[in-house]
Each structure stands twice: as structure tokens, then as C-alpha cells.
Specification:
By secondary structure, this protein is α/β, with parallel strands linked by helices. It has eight helices and five strands; from the N terminus they run αβαβααβαβαβαα. The radius of gyration is 20 Å and the shape is elongated. Pfam families: DUF218. Keywords: Membrane, Transmembrane, Transmembrane helix.
Length: 206
């Protein structure tokens, strides 16, 4: 093999090794961030909780009850689930004020769907600031995908954690973190695109 061709081969090899090392370092940072990220509790006009993880809905309703937001959207609720069903799994009861200010979103089945549902809901109520509630491993991607549709809305992340201190053994499996890290990279680099909701959907939701 001639010298220029050999040099090209090594450049490709070291390029692949470099990409793998950067990806691996990023994954370590992502895991540490998942374990330690704990933003302060802000005040906003609305609160959005993405279903799918323990304590998410309970934490979001507590934010509503403590006046950190005026309205609450629970996004990604199964079509046959009603507010009474949700109340049964809570350790406290809902007041009439809570019921009047909670919207159940039945259309989302993914984080992209959550983003579309949230954009329509925020548009309907003319909200320009939202607290986004989800699990620690999910919050970074959720904010990226939400922000792509809510360019003029200020988003505040809020992490719903279990009562026990999270460690790697308490978190979901490493496989879940691995998948979520790659989804976050895809969303951050624009490989995942969220389709902007159509105008008629914006006008008629909720």
C-alpha cells in the first residue's frame, strides 16, 4: 500500500475513534446530569406534565396547588382515562379550583406528540411561559422538542423525582439511558423534527 493511501486509512480510523470517544464522554456527562440536575422551581403562566413516569402528575398538581402556574396540561393521557381516574392514584384530593384549571391531553403518544399538544394548548390560552414537568432522564430532550414549536414561549424545566435519592440502581436501566441519550442527540442536532400543528388544531384545542 502506498504512503498517501495508508495515511488516509489512518485518518479515517482515528476519526472514527475520535467520534466514539466524544460520544462516550457525552454519555457520561448525560448520566451525571440525569442524576444531579435539579433546577429551582419557577413561576409561570402554565404547567405541562408529560405522562409516563412515577410522580410526574403528582408533582405537577402540587405546583398548580402552590400557585406556580395558573393552568395545568396533563399531556399524553389515554383516551379512556378521566380526571377522576387520576385522582384515585394521588395521595390527596383535588379541589374544584384544581379541576377547573386542569386540561387532559388525549392526543399525544410520544414526546413529539406532547410538543404538538402543548403548543396547541398554550396557543389556546395565550400562554407565554410554561413549566415542563417530566423525569430527569427525559427533561433535556423534552425541552428541546417543546422549544422547537414554542419559539416565543419561555420554558422552565422541572424534574419529577421519587422520594428516594436517585442513584444508578434506582434509575431506569442503563439501556433506557442509552436510548434516551441518542434520542436527545437526534433532537438537539435536528435529526428529529417536530411538525408544527395545523392552524385548525391550534384554534380548536382544548
Amino acid at each position: 500500500m502506498d504512503k498517501p493511501r495508508l495515511q488516509s486509512k489512518w485518518i479515517i480510523v482515528w476519526g472514527i475513534v475520535g467520534i466514539f470517544l466524544v460520544w462516550g464522554f457525552g454519555f457520561i456527562v448525560f448520566v451525571i446530569d440525569t442524576l444531579t440536575y435539579n433546577p429551582s422551581i419557577p413561576n409561570a403562566q402554565g404547567i405541562v406534565v408529560l405522562t409516563g413516569g412515577a410522580k410526574r402528575i403528582e408533582n405537577a398538581i402540587k405546583l398548580l396547588q402552590s400557585n406556580h402556574g395558573k393552568y395545568l396540561l396533563i399531556s399524553g393521557v389515554p383516551p379512556t382515562t378521566h380526571l377522576d381516574d387520576i385522582e384515585r392514584i394521588l395521595p390527596f384530593s383535588l379541589t374544584q379550583h384544581d379541576r377547573d384549571h386542569i386540561t387532559l391531553g388525549h392526543n399525544a403518544t410520544s414526546t413529539m406528540g406532547n410538543a404538538i399538544e402543548t403548543a396547541a394548548w398554550a396557543h389556546y390560552y395565550h400562554l407565554d411561559s410554561l413549566i415542563i414537568v417530566t423525569s430527569s432522564y427525559h427533561i433535556r430532550r423534552a425541552i428541546v422538542e417543546m422549544q422547537s414549536l414554542l419559539e416565543n414561549v419561555k420554558l422552565y424545566p422541572y424534574v419529577a423525582r421519587n422520594d428516594k435519592k436517585e442513584t444508578l440502581s434506582h434509575l431506569h436501566s442503563m439501556r433506557l439511558l442509552f436510548l434516551e441519550y441518542n434520542k436527545f442527540l437526534a433532537a438537539y442536532t435536528g435529526l428529529i423534527h417536530t411538525t408544527r400543528p395545523k392552524e385548525d388544531f391550534l384554534k380548536n384545542t382544548p
